[in-house]
Amino acid sequence: MSAGPSTASGTPAGALRHVLSHLITPLLMCVGMGLAYLGAFHAPEPHDLRVDVVGSGASAQVLAQTLQDKGDGALSVRTVADRGIAESHLRTQQSYGAYVPGSSPELIVASASSDTSATVVQKVFTEVAAGQGAPLQVTDVAPTADGDPTGQGIFFLLVAVSIGSYASVAVIGGAGAVLALRIRGVLALATSLVVSAIGAAFAGPVFGLVDHGLGGLWALAWLYSAGILLIGVGLHTFLRRWTTLGVMLLFVMLNFTSSGGIFRPELQPGFFGSLHSFWNGAGFVEGVRSHVYFGGHALGGHVLVLALWFVAGLVVMGVAGLAEARRRREAAQRAREAAERAREAVTLRGAAGAEEEMEEAVGV
């Protein structure tokens, strides 16, 4: 009996089921983006935000302890002997503000480390200075470039490079699925060169997000982009139509929110703060900050993070190559078995036909 009009393939009902099944992906993206972005950014609160109080006397100790107690975990306050040590801590990102008490109180910050963290620290010590009846002078020992006054341009550069990378995964993995994996790998690496060059152009001559160190920024962008493309193209072998959702989870939902480009981990919930230590977006953002503004301090660790993600991409590509080779062998085996069955069927039909002819010849 033939299928009815409501169940037949290609009918409106079948097409509707097809559309509904594919709507699962954007709906999951909606849920994931909401959970990630609102969970990470909707209510930033400091916790263990490191600040220094300059001075070795009893008054400095009392002030530091008072701030520590009053902050109830928001601040991690210590005293340092002099201004030089305080500035050194700021330039090595060991602290995010240093308060120099006195008749003309001063707050020293390094806004290139995080403009939002510097703003939080400034708010705290403005109140302290007001309590002492004196205006607060703010000194920035590591300001951002003129083209990036908020210090968040690096984050939006991360967004641009990320989108160029993971969107290319869909093209190489989907439209290029008929190509050999090694060719797709070469395309991924070539695309990462183009994407990183575009990112460097945005950071330098187009918007002036940095005023030096553009070559190092390009190298970091290439390593970051190549890792995304290799992982994404390799995953496409296994995820197929779910690849877009997978790469968005890895390189948007968890990546942007943990990068530290808007809020450092000291202002975020613990989950996103913990990702900051090893996720690739954080490696790129902190690597660029270290390279451009902090004399390369701790740059090696950030490069290592990006390199490990790149190696992970090579591993995923290798596993994908093994999986595709196995599928080809299995497909070839199925084809051989089908051909053998076809030959056997032809042989059996031929034998049956010969037997019928013989029976007709003898008049049986």
Could you give a quick summary of the protein structure above?
This protein is of the alpha/beta class and 364 residues long. The chain is built from twelve helices and five strands.
Overview of this structure, please?
With 364 residues, this protein is an alpha/beta fold. It has twelve helices and five strands. Strands 2-1-3-4-5 form a five-stranded mixed β-sheet, sandwiched between helices. Helix 1 (12-41) packs parallel to helix 8 and helix 11 (280-293) runs antiparallel to helix 12. The radius of gyration is 31 Å and the shape is elongated. The two termini are 39 Å apart. Residues 1-8 have low confidence and may be disordered.
Biggest beta-sheet profile: 5 strands, mixed
Strand order of the largest sheet: 2-1-3-4-5
Q: Roughly what fraction of the amino acids lie in strands?
A: 5-15%
The radius of gyration is 31 Å
What structural category arises from helix and sheet content? alpha/beta
Number of helices: 12
Terminal Cα separation, in Å?
Answer: 39 Å
Basic shape: elongated
User: Helix-strand pattern, N to C?
Assistant: HEHEHEEHEHHHHHHHH
* E-strand count: 5
Mean pLDDT: 91
Low-confidence stretches: 1-8
Oligomeric form: single chain
Q: Considering DSSP H and I runs of 4 or more, what fraction of the residues is helical? A: 55-70%
